[in-house]
TrEMBL record:
<feature type="binding site">
    <location>
        <position position="234"/>
    </location>
    <ligand>
        <name>substrate</name>
    </ligand>
</feature>
<comment type="similarity">
    <text>Belongs to the histidinol dehydrogenase family.</text>
</comment>
<dbReference type="InterPro" id="IPR016161">
    <property type="entry name" value="Ald_DH/histidinol_DH"/>
</dbReference>
<feature type="binding site">
    <location>
        <position position="416"/>
    </location>
    <ligand>
        <name>substrate</name>
    </ligand>
</feature>
<dbReference type="Pfam" id="PF00815">
    <property type="entry name" value="Histidinol_dh"/>
</dbReference>
<keyword id="KW-0520">NAD</keyword>
<feature type="binding site">
    <location>
        <position position="210"/>
    </location>
    <ligand>
        <name>NAD(+)</name>
    </ligand>
</feature>
<dbReference type="GO" id="GO:0008270">
    <property type="term" value="F:zinc ion binding"/>
</dbReference>
<dbReference type="InterPro" id="IPR022695">
    <property type="entry name" value="Histidinol_DH_monofunct"/>
</dbReference>
<feature type="binding site">
    <location>
        <position position="411"/>
    </location>
    <ligand>
        <name>substrate</name>
    </ligand>
</feature>
<feature type="binding site">
    <location>
        <position position="256"/>
    </location>
    <ligand>
        <name>substrate</name>
    </ligand>
</feature>
<dbReference type="InterPro" id="IPR012131">
    <property type="entry name" value="Hstdl_DH"/>
</dbReference>
<dbReference type="GO" id="GO:0051287">
    <property type="term" value="F:NAD binding"/>
</dbReference>
<feature type="binding site">
    <location>
        <position position="357"/>
    </location>
    <ligand>
        <name>Zn(2+)</name>
    </ligand>
</feature>
<feature type="binding site">
    <location>
        <position position="187"/>
    </location>
    <ligand>
        <name>NAD(+)</name>
    </ligand>
</feature>
<keyword id="KW-0028">Amino-acid biosynthesis</keyword>
<keyword id="KW-0560">Oxidoreductase</keyword>
Amino acid sequence: MIRKIVNPDTSTWNELAKRPVKDLEELEPGIRQTFKLVQELGDEALLQLAEKYDGVRPSQLLVSEQELTSATDKVDAELREAILQAYNNIRTFHEKQAEKMQPVETMPGVLCWRKSVAIQKVGLYIPGGTAPLFSTLLMLGVPAKLAGCESIILCTPPAKDGSIHPAILYTAGLLGINRIVKAGGAQAVAAMAFGTESVLAVSKIFGPGNQYVTVAKQMVSRLGVAIDMPAGPSEVLVMADEAANPAFVAADLLSQAEHGADSQVVLLTTSEQLLDAVGKELEKQLAELPRAGFAAQALENSLAIVLPDTAQMLAFSNMYAPEHLILAIKDYESIAEGVVNAGSVFLGNFTPESAGDYASGTNHTLPTNGFARAYSGVSLDSFLKKITFQHITPVGLTNIGKTVEVMAAAEGLQAHKNAVSIRLKEINNV
Ligand SMILES: NC(=O)c1ccc[n+]([C@@H]2O[C@H](COP(=O)([O-])OP(=O)(O)OC[C@H]3O[C@@H](n4cnc5c(N)ncnc54)[C@H](O)[C@@H]3O)[C@@H](O)[C@H]2O)c1
Ligand SMILES: N[C@H](CO)Cc1c[nH]c[nH+]1
Ligand SMILES: [Zn+2]
């Protein structure tokens, strides 16, 4: 069960913030082997590795037209309606993120502007090892389509019978994504990075996944393929005081613990009484969960920490940088203002984290393992490049020319200076 700690010394906080993830050095050699196999054997490597890790050698790697069209009837009407509602909310939230910058005249005759352009070829990884995360497809597919990415490839591991979950296929159909590859894990990442006969090499790979997927993404990013961020095993940190409801807090902790044995959940509280009540609720609710095995293992790696006040809870949370932060405290509005490191924040007692996982509109592909200190979650921007443009008139060059000449000369870069001087001479007819 969850480890309890009362008023830990601040010198121990960094140690407490370590996630239960395997070392990069432990995972990298195996993943490098996988990369080599995919580069040497292409599609055949994907088939062999599906057999090894997913327990099936699919009869074909690409989902067929027939598999795609027959998926709709296999998804019940209530689920289709829920997916549609989530799709609409996610679309509404993400389309408002579009920016159009007006040109700016920094000096008379010197005009600068910036334009957003879609990344042309993108790859989406949809986890499917232990749960078919069709919600993740909405989180990646909606902004990819809004951005206008021309070529979108989707990789997801096949089930033991070689199929892809109908809800994933239905969601792909809704989004208009039809190139779907039955491949998971590091081999899927390798295929999207290097290309195979069936998988087009892409410029940027998106999507969460287990540690193999996350480390593989980090490794290809060193080889020149962009990635969204390291989005590994799910985590949540709940800050709770006496205003919190222990049953709600336990439910929120379990909602992320059930993702997998390597997930971590953290409870910070000012009240030992609340901590005990949450402990009882955890036991009660855990016993009812179909994925109790995963959740119980995750709780073993998790923490419940009593701290003296809300300021200390905020300080710990900012140091921990959780993927999800729930503020189940009286002053959630003012404390939210002080959050500087978190993937996504949930305010008050009636904002469960699962609402963001599925349907409120925000993106659930978020940085884990402390990466929220520097990375943002997926958004429309993740699928766009920002290209800057400028146009300088002869009057503009007359205004800015001297500045550039002086700076170039001071850096000892005469050719830079000349590129301006030669034009100024022409303007002045010298
Ligand atoms: N951070 C986020 O935004 C976010 C969002 C959703 C899900 N998640 C996380 O995604 C993960 C999904 O994990 P999953 O395992 O269910 O699915 P997954 O699709 O990420 O991984 C399954 C694949 O892992 C590979 N694999 C499994 N065992 C292996 C081994 N021993 N060696 C090499 N490769 C192996 C296999 O190829 C398999 O196809 C969970 O950890 C969940 O918490 C994170
Ligand atoms: N909590 C996950 C992100 O860490 C996203 C998810 C998908 N389905 C359910 N939850
Ligand atoms: Zn979740």
